[in-house]
Design brief:
mainly alpha, about 375 residues, 10 helices, about 55% helix
Amino acid sequence: MAVLKVKFTKNKRDKLAQILWILNWVSVVSGIILFSLGLFLKIEIKKRNEVMAKGDINSVPNMLISVGVIACIINFLGGKICYDCSDANKFSRWKLVMLPYIVCTFCFTFCILVGALMCYTMRNELEESLYLGLRDAIKFYKDTDIPGRCFLKKTVDMLQIGFQCCGNNGFRDWFEIQWVSARYLNMASKEVLDRLKSNVDGRFLVDGVPFSCCNPSSPRPCIQYQLTNNSAHYNYDFLTEELNIWVKGCREALLDYYTAIMRSIGIAALLIWLFELSVLIGVRYLQTAMKNVLLLGDPQGESDGWLLENSFVETAKYNINIIKNLGKANQISTVSAMTDPNIDVKNTNCGKTNVPTKSIPAAS
């Protein structure tokens, strides 16, 4: 029994073909939107590539870009097919193409759904990439004279100012590394030498942060050095007073920023998926209705259209049997060959040379 069978008149088939022709062109625009969203996300990731570790974070934008290009091609072809389906004579040349086109469109529509879901599952990979990338960027913050790292100081400073953040997980990350370049240290100072000697690795560690961590909206001058020393500042309590530096870590700030972008892109991709699915259902009805018109031989008569010719269970069994039998068409069963009575049957005339032949009567 057919699933969701609908009866179509000649007028309904023509209107369905015209509507689908318009919707396919709208789908071309939706493909351009998917391509643009993927390109936008790729550019946003590229902007902060220096503070991200290498990984699969580009899989989502690459997926959206690919699906967007394919959407433009498939829907352009679909518009041409639906335009010709208003005429039974023109449909006959697309009859063999329609079913493979619907199958390919179904797979493509499924890819849109996968791309939308990937926007919501990318957070963990992005968080790990930001954690490792920011850790290395902060570690090499002081290396302004080393090629390949000299840009990291500016990158981190602009990042902390722009996203109002400090450090990787927080401002205390700067206490654990030497972020002041050695060329700015006064080696004649006893305080500097004592700090270098007190550390096992010979690093100059201070309880301070770079200037880019300062909050310019604070009512008092920025306290970026000796943050944990209450006696070093007037009327200051490190434990109770609100610090005038950014307390949020840059990893959290960037993660929130990209999560908001991917959530918006995911919603847009889901809406496009629903739209493409509705167009695909309409094309399936049009294909089955036009196919039945050709079988009936009356282009002006009524015809049935459906999503599936048989029930879901029967269709699934049929497709499973096709998959199981793939590649078996050219195989010969040795068991059946052994039991075939037509094999190795001896011909009684084989090898006999003195078999008399019937004479041909002469014409009178």
